[in-house]
Amino acid sequence: MLTKKQLDLLEFIHKRMARDGVPPSFDEMKEALDLRSKSGIHRLITALEERGFIRRLAHRARAIEIVKLPDSLLAKEAATSRGFRPRVIDGGADASAAADRPSGGQPLEALHAQELQVMGKIAAGVPIEAISEVASHIAVPGSMLSRGGDHYALEVSGDSMIEAGINDGDVVIIRETATADDGDIVVALVEEQEATLKKIYRKSGSIDLVAANPAYATRTLPADKVRVQGRLVGLIRSY
């Protein structure tokens, strides 16, 4: 059985991963649980890992994987949605096929896979040439994919998004869209020539492309020089 703080932290991590595709930082966890120091978060994380609810991935920034959810959280989600479709990284998939969803306490696994085109590499660093050719294909869990949307995959090159949990060599799953909210991680096409993976923020007449690594400066460009080609909805990592 989990303590209230352990349950609260697991629910917070799960909701943030479902919303953003990456786990929250320890500072965000500390603030959400109203703790005075990060040492308390470390103890809660260790307890959740020992009980088999999460897995920490070695040598990865902010890399936490949810392995299973307790029955209480599963029941809570089932009561507020059309059907619980658990996922490690959310692509906004509709909660359909409720009969196929895992039962309480079971590992969170994608039950269906779809083959996507891997459209070469995307720069998480200095922008590289725009991507237009299919390099390979990859099988992606259906829970990562938005219902009714088109998707593609890109291999990440560089480390500018490492603090968002995106590392060199990862494969990101992108939902095709020309729009994005401030703070979304997007594929941005710069001057119709360079593609890069960054957080996007809009100002009056300009756009900021923001890295998740303090070693990289924010790029501010005229709004008409940047075109959104997709939004990050998932990530696949090989070891």
Automatic annotation (TrEMBL):
Keywords: Autocatalytic cleavage, DNA damage, DNA repair, DNA replication, DNA-binding, Hydrolase, Repressor, SOS response, Transcription, Transcription regulation
Molecular-function annotations in GO: DNA binding; serine-type endopeptidase activity
Catalytic activity: Hydrolysis of Ala-|-Gly bond in repressor LexA
Site (Cleavage): 124-125
A Pfam family assignment: Peptidase_S24
Domain (Peptidase S24/S26A/S26B/S26C): residue spans on this chain: 118-233
GO biological process: DNA repair; DNA replication; negative regulation of DNA-templated transcription; proteolysis; SOS response
LexA repressor DNA-binding domain mapped to chain residues: 2-63
Coiled coil ranges: none
DNA-binding residue intervals: 26-46
EC number: 3.4.21.88
Active site: 160 (for autocatalytic cleavage activity), 198 (for autocatalytic cleavage activity)
Cell cycle as UniProt keyword: no
Domain of life: Bacteria
InterPro entries: LexA, LexA-like, LexA/Signal_pep-like_sf, LexA_DNA-bd_dom, LexA_repressor, Peptidase_S24_LexA, Peptidase_S24_S26A/B/C, WH-like_DNA-bd_sf
PANTHER family for the chain: LEXA REPRESSOR, LEXA REPRESSOR-RELATED
Subunit architecture: Homodimer.
Name of the featured protein: LexA repressor
Lineage: Bacteria, Pseudomonadati, Pseudomonadota, Alphaproteobacteria, Rhodobacterales
